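To fix ideas at the outset, we first show an illustrative case, written as a sequence plus integers encoding its fold:
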Amino acid sequence: MNAGVFFSKKYLSDNRENIALIRSKIVGSGHGFSIVTDFDDLNGLDVLFVLGGDGTILAVASECAVRGVKIIGINYGHMGFLAEFEPDKADEAVELVLSGNYQIQKRSMLKVRIGKKAYHALNELVIQRSTAGDHFTNTVNIHAEIDGVTVDNFSSDGIIISTPTGSTAYSLSAGGSVLSPELEAFILTPICAHSLHSRPIVFSNRSVLKLKESNARFPLVVSVDGKIIGELAGDEEVVVTKARRKAEFITSADKNFFNTLLMKLSIWSR
């Protein structure tokens, strides 16, 4: 087995001890170990320990998915929905991996195509109004089609297309439903809709979703997993489908999604 560690520099002073712990246990058991500083370092790895918050995991998840690298998260952030362990349980995380007595939870991802470019998202795609300079606009109008049939023309601040994983993130804050990870579905959630009939819509992840601005006055801001990837201008179309590969997370056999959800939301609500 070849294992690696990817960590958030934001928490580096806090996680140096656990990085050393992971390295010592992995190398001491006769396995390969490396520190991941860029995506090329993922090549040849079997398991990646990610030390940080959900944002740190999102930063590397799609790159792990295309390479078949399994992820195990150690939470240094606020929520840590994607992390299996807290920092004081890092030794248990290593022992779980070394024992091989774990489960693999596979999580669907979005494939987002804009023109000739393609992106992958574990959490969500967001298309929203611009708040910058001359491009500032109060609302946008986004036309949505699923499998060639019009869903709605959403007059809103924008729209979120989320996976089940991302349903507990921005989509939830915008009023969307929580989807359990095993569902073969995505959710479309308007952001501050200006129409009472515009509501979140859950649809099959086997469908093809197409989005474009109905009356393009200003470019729309497009982001994937919280990272701005550019602007949508004119009659450009965004095509969303299920990605071919899934992100794979190492979990303990007794982990339950709803127990985790209740615990995390209780912390969030404090």
Notes: The chain has a mean pLDDT of 89. Helices lie at 12-28, 54-67, 90-99, 170-173, 257-268. The longest helix spans residues 12-28.
